[in-house]
Amino acid sequence: MLEKCEGIVIRTNDYGETNKIATLFTREWGKTGVMARGAKKPNSRLSAVTQLFTYGYFLIQRGRGMGSLQQGDMVQSMRSIREDIFLTAYASYIAELTDKCTEEKKSNPFLFELLFKTLQHLDEGYDPDIIVNIYEMKMMNVIGLYPVLDRCVNCGNTEGVFAFSIREGGILCHRCIGIDPYHLKVSAPAIKLLRLFYLLDPSRVGNISVKETTKAELKRVITAYYEEYSGLHLKTKKFLDQMDNLKDKL
User: Is 0.90 surpassed by the pTM of this model?
Assistant: First the structure.
């Protein structure tokens, strides 16, 4: 059966000398793998549409096993991402995070829209650190993580000075920080941004300006939280951290 879908290429693997297996995240079916026969040939009509991060419409022959890609209509190539090594690193992390956190053929239109908007914002030159942080915060619910960010996780207090507790899974007020000696000291602006990123509608993201010190706080909290609870060990995350270190030295 031939079916059309709206999708984004989040992973590609070579298959034989001339073929590719492309993993698409689609609006209609969620994540699905398709065989793109001959896509490795330079003159193939499937070569361009099976490049990583490509957004478009795909005509797929679907059956019991893996679908076969018959045709693709590219809408956006995300060219700016692919032409910048740093942006490629950010986008690759987003793609792998999506891939590892989702099941095959489980529809999630909200996540599709989030992924598309996130890659689009990277392609348009928005601050990549902030865009990635927003995506990470949004992905927490997808993998069953629900940090408490609107009140003290211990007493429910909503006012005062807060720290972040990885162990307790949320913020602790100044009265309760003693229950976790390993709490992370986090500034009020960073707490506010964590809450904002967690709740923000991705279509309303503007070019948010954040101090480098606050960015470092956000990265420290989000990274530690993922390391403690997600069970993910992503190659692209390690590479992205190396790229960040390199960028700091340039």
Answer: yes
